[in-house]
Amino acid sequence: MTRRTFVVATGSSVAAAALAGRAAAAPRAIVDGAHVPVLVVGSGYGGSVAALRLAQAGVDVHVVEMGMAWDTPGPDGKIFANTTAPDYRSYWLRTRTKQPLSNFLGFPIDRDVPRYTGILDAEDFSGITVYQGRGVGGGSLVNGGMAVTPRRENFGAILPSVNVDEMYNVFYPRANAELGVNNVDQAWWETAACYQYGRVGRKHAQRSNFSFVLVPNVYDMAYMQQEQAGTVPKSAVAGELLYGNNHGKKSLPKTYLARARATGRVAITPLHRVTSVAPVSGGRFAVVVEQLGTGGEVTATKQVTADRVFFAAGSVGTSKLLTRLKATGRLPNLNNEIGKGWGDNGNVMCGRANHLWDPTGSVQSSVPTAGIDNWAAGGAFAEVAPLPTGIETYASFYLSITRNPNRAQFSYNASTGTVDLNWQTAWKQPSIDAAKTIFDRINATEGTIYRTDLFGVYKIWGDHLTYHPLGGAVLNRATDNYGRLHGYPGLYVIDGALIPGNTSVNPFVTITALAERNIARIIADDL
Ligand code: FAE
């Protein structure tokens, strides 16, 4: 489609919308046979940035999201389940929970749950389980909210083709502002009971001469202070996080997506999964969308067309979709970089057993606020994470982000019809080695040992999972330097799939800032 026809199509649908009097658009599900100027696949960070900025530029956008809307309370009056009591809402189409910490005191803690389109997907590949958020807001619904801008000196290794000054002067500040990133009040943090585990983490880090940093977050820290004071309904302080926060968290539906909807130009259809995108005449794309029931069954299949499609299904979702579409001949001109460069952000977990004089607290805020930075010397940044069990565990728990050079590839398996990932469990060894540069030293200083009861029976390292999938359609390789897919003008990637495997810190601020950078250029040049 030419620039002119795109603008005309956009303008005509805007005019039609105005005539229909839907300036403040009510949610409307995508219908079979519809034509939309822009279709966005997925409503996480990348998809939300694309929706807001395109709408502000005058373009009608339809976001298709496979997960639920998460706007309606369940029978207990709450939208989201507590981390300590997973139920039907907690897992994406599983009949048994798959909790990141599978054991406690050596006993398995997973339980049966009804199969439902729940909020957290523990997606199993041969060598790794990838945790992802499912629903309007993507990962922002389930994540820890840690909003970390990488150190400037590390940026070159993250996205070598991107102008560093532009990112740090314009796009990181823009992303942080829109996401509502805020800092914990340190004076409060120093005494709050719910951050005793953080202060113990600091004491142990500093006694071993590691740099300890308080980290910004998108959880409303003023709200959390009120939670601790008992003046508002509790969320983080009551252990909510992994399966959603009923209060306090500035997830995407409260920030980017709220502003996108307020333009009147953005519609979001939940419980619909995009399964195919292929070029048709007139420069348009035919998109196949499956409507899902809450048991995961396909209740309808819709064929729509779009002038442009933004892939924002997350690193795994976008990579799987593009790998399949290239292999099955629907997008054969995609280049051979599709599916490559996937990494786990070097995630590895561990716990330490503290002495009885170092309790970490029976009430722990589920929102992490601090990390140990040993990136330069040891290639590890360890988040001091909560263990919100409701009882004193005398444990310190950490999620480390490490410099792990291993990269996996997605490929289409014609015999099973699935897209596989060739990650191997043994590829976590560099992450374990990097994390040990911190925790072996702390254990030596403190005279303590690793916990062996959290990930199985006598297993120290949580090396079977990641929370931070990145890559699979890497910037400047599978796409041009702004996310335009090679081979198909009008197709874009705008999510974590663009980032080659590692960000040196928690990734969503970088995903958001990169999306802001790319969409600004796409609006300026392509529209
Ligand atoms: P993402 O947010 O995953 O959104 C993709 C969306 O697309 C999802 O809503 C999918 O349901 C949807 N989708 C997928 N396939 C399809 C399809 N075919 N059709 C329609 N929709 C589809 O992608 N990061 C941090 O920076 N700080 C943290 O503290 C942090 N903690 C985390 C804790 C947990 C438990 C988890 C799981 C993740 C955490 N992350 C954290 C990672 C962060 O949430 C993740 O990097 C971003 O959400 C990725 O953003 P994307 O836009 O790439």
Automatic annotation (TrEMBL):
Cofactor requirements of the protein: FAD
Keywords per UniProt: Cholesterol metabolism, FAD, Flavoprotein, Isomerase, Lipid metabolism, Oxidoreductase, Signal, Steroid metabolism, Sterol metabolism
Domain FAD-binding: 36-84
PROSITE patterns (UniProt xref): TAT
Range of residues in the leader sequence: 1-20
Span of domain Glucose-methanol-choline oxidoreductase C-terminal: 466-515
Known EC number: 1.1.3.6, 5.3.3.1
Pathway: Steroid metabolism; cholesterol degradation
PANTHER family: CHOLESTEROL OXIDASE, FAD-DEPENDENT OXIDOREDUCTASE 2 FAD BINDING DOMAIN-CONTAINING PROTEIN
Protein name, as recorded: Cholesterol oxidase
Organism encoding this protein: Actinophytocola xanthii
